[in-house]
Model the fold of this input.
Amino acid sequence: AQSVTQPDIHITVSEGASLELRCNYSYGATPYLFWYVQSPGQGLQLLLKYFSGDTLVQGIKGFEAEFKRSQSSFNLRKPSVHWSDAAEYFCAVLRSSGGGADGLTFGKGTHLIIQP
Amino acid sequence: GAGVSQSPRYKVAKRGQDVALRCDPISGHVSLFWYQQALGQGPEFLTYFQNEAQLDKSGLPSDRFFAERPEGSVSTLKIQRTQQEDSAVYLCASRTGLSPPDTQYFGPGTRLTVL
Done:
């Protein structure tokens, strides 16, 4: 069965510094991968997604992610974080890309703290 | 346009009570999903519908959980005889149903607390 691992439970970054959040997946076929952000009291908002093609995908709010099949990774990056980026970040994989099961399998999330 | 809405936003139930949680998907969205998010965890898949058909309910944790979408639009997640371990945020999401799968849009969730 597919799974998603986010190794870092908490990450603290200074405002203006660069950010990388790690995500590893386990999936037999070509995965459909997503990054979502969840702010307190807010619903999940899609940052970006990878289905196929260019392995470097651009998202909203200045985020990007790179799909690396050899490392089974889909890490999220941002060159300069803002205080408003403080939130919970979730990596997810589509449960099946072959037309079978639908829905998402999420990682446990990474809590991002921004230091002034 | 309006996003996914859920009601109530907060629900407190005494152990053993039945609860019903409502989801209004984005108009025209064919696929609808329910997830359970325990405190400090990522959302976990419960079930999904394509129109009125419940195609997968493998994530429902017990037979106390039941979901329906009788007219292919609004969906209700019902939990019978609630237990403390049912305390969580219940998220609903919808998408167009196109293939390959496109973006799932999430509602704000219903926070259920079972005392």
